[in-house]
Structure formats: structure tokens, C-alpha cells
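Project outcomes to date are best conveyed with an example. Our students and postdoctoral researchers have been running inverse folding experiments weekly, and each run begins with a structure described purely in C-alpha cells. The record below, which covers 344 residues, was selected by the lab manager from last quarter's runs and is presented without edits.
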């Protein structure tokens, strides 16, 4: 029997991608959709300006959108996926958890809270048990797990593959697609024939979230990894797919060949949305590229390439689909982990 799920912020860009991924999912059944007060009471077809690259599902299109309030979501919904703006999520997500709902959230609020697991299942699935600490400290019947920022998700799996060599220092420069800013986030006059060398608060997210994801959980508290991370974030005129340039300094000797072998051998998980091969490594020096490689593993794989020696021990490029692996798909995968680990 499928788990009944709801989508908070269902009319937005990530909410639409969540619906695209959840509607055919054999383990989940969409049972509730919420949005702003202006959308409440409308059918989803009326409320959402559908922009995803597949038709709006007929059964979802005729569902009635409710307000984003715990009292408006049916009690028999077992799991919520949140794509709310962080300013809204900060206010309402705790209320849903207090009301007993389990939540997989893509919103940036509370990602760095000590008792909130920030999870990429292939990297740190064991952090999900921080939910026990969360429930004890907050008195919640529900629970909340977060997935990281879309750019953090792109490079952290490659770092996890290299952790065996002793990570000391990482520099990363991102070339981020416009879809990461939302449909109305960057105007065409601003981005066409241009690149914007600043994305508000992105650099801090990469620098802090990566250390939390690579940290150790002892069953009671989480200690962050000591690796030093410095980030520079740029917006470029691609639609989907965040490309990143990474420089890594390690304690042990690390050749490009060793790094490629470690990335190719890094394990995936037996969860439905986790790709068979998590990290694809290209030998070609001009790969990966957003248009060619963002849909690897149905958009859930990480692509790497251009591995070479530099003034650091290693330099390489990596890429992920920012609205699938970096957002909606990451939340769905965390939902599958919650189900697999018995939290639903």
C-alpha cells in the first residue's frame, strides 16, 4: 500500500518538479497539495502555472489546493515534502512537525540546526537517526529532515569519495543554472550574454553544509568535518545543471587516477531514486557539460571529469541537475530513506 504524501508549496518550481517525480512513484500517493492563501480553494490546474517538461498529471490537476496550515492537511497523510520559501518554512514547518507530520524538506531554513539531519543518503544516511535527538529535544511527534543546497549536493558526493585520502582543504567555484533562482529569479535582460559573480548566501551554504554532511554522528550529537572549504558562486545562462570547478588538497598522496577510481567505486544505495552509478567519471577533458550530462541517472547522478594535477593535489569538474538531484529528487530520496528506516 502506497504512503499518502503531501506537497507544501506545490505551485512553485520545486513543488512542480516534486509532483512530476511523485506522481508515478510506486511507494508514494499524492494526497494533499498546499500553497499560498491566494491559491487555496482552486484546483491545482487553476493555481499552478505549469512549467515542467512533461504534462501535468490529470489526477493531480483536478485536486483542490489547500492553505499551508496543519489544520488543512488530512490526518492520514504520512509524509510531507516541503518546497516552501525559507521565510515561510521557518514559520510553518515546525508547526507541522508539532502536529505529528514527518517532513522531508528542501527549504533552506534550519539546515544547520544541531538537531536537524542534513542528508544526502548515499553520503550520510546514518545521520537520519539524529531525528531521535530532535524528537526528544523538541517534543515532536513528527520529524523533519533536510536536503542540502543544490550546489552543495553537486560536489559533496565527490568529496565523500575522496575522504579516504584525508581531506584538508577544498576550493569550489560554481557555475549555476538560472533555474536555481526560480522562474522569476533572474530576468532575461540580466543574464543573457552575461554571468553574475555573486549569488546571495550561496557561498556560506556550500562552506558550512559540506562540513556538516561529512561530519560524524555518535548517536547523541553531530560533529562537523574539519575540512576547510572556500566557495565562489556564479550564475550563468544555462537553464538546468550546476557545473562546479573543484580544487582539493589531501593529507595523503592523491593522483588523478586514484581519484577517478575512488569516485567510480563510490557506492550507491538500494533506494528507488538512487542511481545505479552515483558518480560518472569522464575521461574527456571537456566533460561534464550541463546540456549533455545533467540527465545522467534520470537526473539523480553526479558527473565528474577533467581530473588533473594542479597547484593543489587535485583539480576536477563536477555537475548535477539542480532541480532534480539538487532539489526535488533529493527530497524524494530522503523520503525513501525515512520509509526504509522506519520513520514512516
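After processing, the design step wrote out the following sequence:
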Amino acid at each position: 500500500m502506497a504512503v499518502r504524501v503531501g506537497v507544501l508549496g506545490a505551485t512553485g518550481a520545486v513543488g512542480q518538479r516534486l509532483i512530476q517525480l511523485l506522481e508515478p512513484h510506486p511507494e508514494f500517493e499524492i494526497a494533499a497539495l498546499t500553497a499560498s492563501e491566494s491559491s487555496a480553494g482552486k484546483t491545482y490546474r487553476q493555481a499552478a502555472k505549469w512549467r515542467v517538461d512533461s504534462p501535468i498529471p490529470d489526477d493531480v490537476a483536478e485536486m483542490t489546493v489547500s492553505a499551508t496550515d496543519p489544520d488543512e492537511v488530512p490526518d492520514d497523510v504520512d509524509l510531507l515534502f516541503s518546497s516552501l520559501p525559507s521565510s515561510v518554512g521557518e514559520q510553518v514547518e515546525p508547526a507541522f512537525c508539532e502536529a505529528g507530520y514527518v517532513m522531508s524538506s528542501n527549504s533552506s531554513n534550519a539546515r544547520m540546526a544541531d538537531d536537524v539531519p542534513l542528508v544526502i543518503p548515499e553520503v550520510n544516511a546514518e545521520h537520519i537517526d539524529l531525528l531521535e535527538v530532535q524528537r526528544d529535544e523538541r517534543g515532536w511527534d513528527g520529524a523533519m529532515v533536510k536536503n542540502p543546497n543544490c550546489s552543495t549536493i553537486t560536489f559533496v558526493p565527490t568529496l565523500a569519495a575522496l575522504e579516504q585520502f584525508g581531506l584538508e582543504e577544498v576550493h569550489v567555484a560554481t557555475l549555476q543554472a538560472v533555474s536555481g533562482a526560480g522562474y522569476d529569479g533572474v530576468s532575461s535582460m540580466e543574464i543573457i550574454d552575461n554571468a553574475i559573480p555573486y549569488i546571495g548566501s550561496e557561498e556560506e551554504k556550500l562552506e558550512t553544509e559540506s562540513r556538516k554532511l561529512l561530519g560524524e554522528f555518535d548517536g547523541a550529537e553531530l560533529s562537523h568535518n574539519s575540512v576547510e572549504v572556500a566557495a565562489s558562486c556564479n550564475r550563468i545562462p544555462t537553464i538546468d545543471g550546476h557545473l562546479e570547478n573543484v580544487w582539493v588538497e589531501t593529507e595523503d598522496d592523491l593522483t588523478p587516477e586514484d581519484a577517478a577510481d575512488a569516485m567510480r567505486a563510490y557506492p550507491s544505495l538500494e533506494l528507488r531514486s538512487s542511481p545505479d552509478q552515483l558518480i560518472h567519471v569522464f575521461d574527456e577533458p571537456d566533460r561534464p557539460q550541463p546540456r549533455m550530462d545533467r540527465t545522467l541517472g534520470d537526473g539523480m547522478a553526479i558527473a565528474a571529469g577533467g581530473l588533473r594535477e594542479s597547484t593543489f593535489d587535485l583539480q576536477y569538474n563536477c555537475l548535477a541537475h539542480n532541480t532534480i538531484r539538487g532539489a526535488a529528487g533529493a527530497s524524494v530520496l530522503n523520503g525513501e530513506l525515512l520509509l526504509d528506516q522506519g520513520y514512516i
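The chain is about 30% helix and 20% strand. The longest helix spans residues 324-340. The training component of this project remains on track.
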